[in-house]
Amino acid sequence: MNAAYVFRVAFRLDPDGARADPDRFETTVELPAAEPGTEGWLFFHDRLWRGEVGDEPSARRFLGDRLGVEVVAASFRELRTDREHLDALEAAIAADLDRFNADSVDEVLHKYLGSSIHVRE
């Protein structure tokens, strides 16, 4: 299984005693998705809403901690996944629909990921 949450981030350098020009950069960040049903698999539930970052200040801090820089902007791009991971994610969601206050797996996926799921073979 192979999947990652993809974000577009902008970060700023704050060099000590030096000047950087430019001091702001943009990049794409891929965070590996945990295997469904294991610790961390609810990342989409905790961080996303309708295919967008649910709480941008929190996401900027989280991504900044992961990157070791001050993140000044963050946006969610997609869950990039293979079919095996998506099938396992759907099965894990189906096994606990009440957790998501939803009637179907599709409703859950849309509620948190919007249309931002990109399946790669």
Please, could you describe this protein's structure?
The protein is of the alpha+beta class and 121 residues long. The protein has one domain. It contains 4 helices and 6 strands, in the order ββαββαβααβ. It has helices at 43-47, 56-67, 83-94, 105-113, and strands at residues 3-12, 24-32, 48-49, 52-53, 70-81, 117-119. The protein has a 4-stranded mixed beta sheet. A two-stranded antiparallel sheet has the order 3-4. Helix 3 (83-94) packs across helix 4 (105-113). The mean pLDDT is 95.
Pattern of helices and strands: EEHEEHEHHE
Beta strand count = 6
- The number of helical segments is 4
Give the N-terminus to C-terminus distance in angstroms.
11 Å
Q: Quick one: biggest sheet?
A: 4 strands, mixed
Number of domains: 1
State mean pLDDT (0 to 100 scale): 95
Rounded Rg: 16 Å
Order of strands, main sheet, comes to 2-1-5-6
Going by helix content, strand content and strand pairing, the class is: alpha+beta
List the helices and strands and how they pair.
Layout: E1 3-12, E2 24-32, H1 43-47, E3 48-49, E4 52-53, H2 56-67, E5 70-81, H3 83-94, H4 105-113, E6 117-119
Parallel strand pairs: 5-6
Antiparallel strand pairs: 1-2, 1-5, 3-4
Helix pairs in contact: 3-4
Give the gist of this structure.
The chain is an alpha+beta fold and 121 residues long. The protein is built from 4 helices and 6 strands; from the N terminus they run ββαββαβααβ.
